[in-house]
Amino acid sequence: SALTLFLTFSSLLGKVWLMLVILLRMAVVVLAGYPLYQDEQERFVCNTLQPGCSNVCYDLFSPVSHFRFWLIQTVSILLPYAAFNIYVLHQVATYIVRTHCLVQGCEGNKGLSSPQHLKKLCRSAVVNRLDCGANNLSVLNFSGAYTVHLCFRTLLEAAFATVQYFLFGFFVPERFSCYHSPCTSAVDCYISRPTEKSI
User: Fold this and answer.
1) What is the 3-state secondary structure (H, E, C) of the chain?
2) How far apart are CA 180 and CA 118, in angstroms?
3) Rounded to the nearest 10 degrees, what angle do helices 143-167 and 66-104 cross at?
4) Contacts 24+ apart (CB under 8 A), 168-175
5) Residue 133 pLDDT exceeds 50
6) In the beta sheet, which residues pair with residue 176?
7) More confident of the two residues 5 and 96
8) What is the mean pLDDT of the chain?
9) Mind listing the pLDDT tens digit for each residue in 107-129?
10) Which residues, listed in sequence order, are joined to residue 187 by a DSSP beta bridge?
11) Where are the domains of the chain?
12) In angstroms, rounded to a whole number, what is the distance separating the alpha carbons of residues 113 and 120?
């Protein structure tokens, strides 16, 4: 029907979109972020000769490396998706075993004790389609789990955006002023390529 076709197409479109987002994000972080931020501390120049002052000012300016923060963000965003896929695989494997037991009449877990037998069962279930009538098969519903995983991903994105705003802000200033021990007076520090980093 048209609804089934729409759901299949939207599901496929969602998977393609997710992969593109992941690949584009990884490409931006690795290909653009790493070259831009690999020399961030060396290019952080302060107008002082006081030993340790530049390091303290840099730590105040950037408590966490932007590049490492974005890598942690990308991996964290992938965790709910991985958990959802593992849950779906587990549910499908359980469904295949239960359906096989209904059709073949398993006594308890007899014959399902070894992992090799379970693998053989899953392969035969896929090949033979369990030899059941169409009326006996039911479609597994993962919409609740998908919604939960989508909410977790959205919350993680919002949380990381909030943390990034409080740690770094959304714009990189050209000059950063700091006054902290061991600096003996107010020190101005200059950030390399601030416009490119803001973009």
Assistant:
1) CHHHHHHHHHHHHHHHHHHHHHHHHHHHHHHHHHHHHCCCCCCCEECCCCCCHHHHHHHHHCCCCHHHHHHHHHHHHHHHHHHHHHHHHHHHHHHHHHHHHHHHCCCCCCCCCCHHHHHHHHHHHHHHHHHCCHHHCCCCCCHHHHHHHHHHHHHHHHHHHHHHHHHCCCCCCCEEEECCCCCCCCEEEECCCHHHHHC
2) 64
3) 170
4) 168/62, 168/66, 170/198, 171/198, 172/197, 172/198
5) no
6) 189
7) 96
8) 77
9) 444 545 555 665 565 555 544 54
10) 178
11) 1-35
12) 12
AA identity, residue 132: C
d(CA 163, CA 44): 23
Q: 118 - beta bridge partners? A: none
Other C-beta atoms closer than 10 Å to the C-beta of 88 total 15
What type of residue sits at position 131?
D
The pLDDT value given to residue 34: 82
Question: If you search the block for the tokens 């499908």, which residue do you land on?
Answer: 92
Tokens of residue 24, six digits: 């584009």
Q: Are 130 and 54 in contact (CB under 8 A)?
A: no
Task: Tell me the one-letter amino acid at 3.
Answer: L
- At residue 108, φ and ψ (nearest 5 deg) are 65, -130
